[in-house]
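Please study the protein below:
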Amino acid sequence: MERNRQAERSTLYIVLACVILVSLWIWFHRQRQQPVATRQGQLRVGRAGDPSLYPPPETPGAVDPQITQENVADTICRPGYTKTVRPPVSYTGRIKRQRMDEYHLPGVLSDYELDHIVPLELGGCPDCLTNLWMEPWPSPGAHEKDRVEDALHREVCRGQISLTEAQRQIMDDWYSVYLSLPPVRGR
């Protein structure tokens, strides 16, 4: 009698595990099939730019916990720092191909830059998947965000803005920061 109850419980646990696994598979499959425009349309209220300028919600950005306000002079503000932490192309190339498939992006790999949402020069996590997204090159895009990254990096290294404030600005709405920058001379 006790053996039958144990067998019934074991069967019940197996059935429950299967139901959970199938439910997770269905959820994951639906997430992957959801068009990028819809996912990217779930933007934070008050962003200045088109949703396509921002990473999808499941890629929010990530910081390197080893980089703090106290050590910026010895890390991100030191010339050549990013070269010491940048992941190798063997890693980023693989991620770039995966992200093209995950996001169902049109075009080819060279249409996008695998971008660190929180850039390395602002203490972004070098190899966290939640900090890597496929940023389009067409304007406004990768070149304009690079300009924001450089401007915020200068401000942090000059002590004009805190590291966490710079990270927040770039994660919340980098394009708004871009719009506030003075025009580039000669253009």
User: Anything to note?
Assistant: Residues 40-180 form one domain. Residues 28-43 have pLDDT under 50 and may be disordered. The first strand starts at residue 112 and ends at 116. The helical segments are 2-33, 36-40, 81-85, 89-103, 142-157, 163-180.
